[in-house]
Amino acid sequence: xxxxxxxxxxxxxxxxxxxxxxxxxxxxxxxxxxxxxxxxxxxxxxxxxxxxxxxxxxxxxxxxxxxxxxxxxxxxxxxxxxxxxxxxxxxxxxxxxxxxxxxxxxxxxxxxxxxxxxxxxxxxxxxxxxxxxxxxxxxxxxxxxxxxxxxxxxxxxxxxxxxxxxxxxxxxxxxxxxxxxxxxxxxxxxxxxxxxx
Length: 197
Description:
Layout: E1 2-8, H1 16-24, E2 32-36, H2 45-53, E3 59-62, H3 65-68, H4 72-84, E4 88-91, H5 109-144, H6 157-167, H7 173-180, H8 184-196
Parallel strand pairs: 1-2, 1-3, 3-4
Helix pairs in contact: 4-5
């Protein structure tokens, strides 16, 4: 039997393109499981229901690999778990991952999909590392140019003007904190910054 899985990250997104593709491939609407949540892990209600439903020789159809999840290492583990039940997987937008392919040059579809998933996992991991590296380089470069990061402080003209009111005991520190919308700790941090300048 054919089953389909569709996922969108939020309730506002529309899964109809995925459903149309699954139906076109021959999956009955009643056999399509849909989740509307992030792909960061596999703790999704409909996905877990799908896993309990799948039986040996069933075919699981998914429009694209990222609908299954975001983390390729986790996707690879899920692939193995599903295939170990004797279920075939077909990814419509990446047929090389299909586990029901006939033997190609002496290699089974399962073996090929394992290799491709491992490569995708490696590429995704390298891309994450590259993104972090580029972010760090950008931040370091900006800091060298004097750009400051983090939440902007409220050490403004208003703060500077209100200090004499405290010194003259016209206002208490608590009143100043309420007026400026800051905590006492923040007040003393700003005061120390002011004294340092």
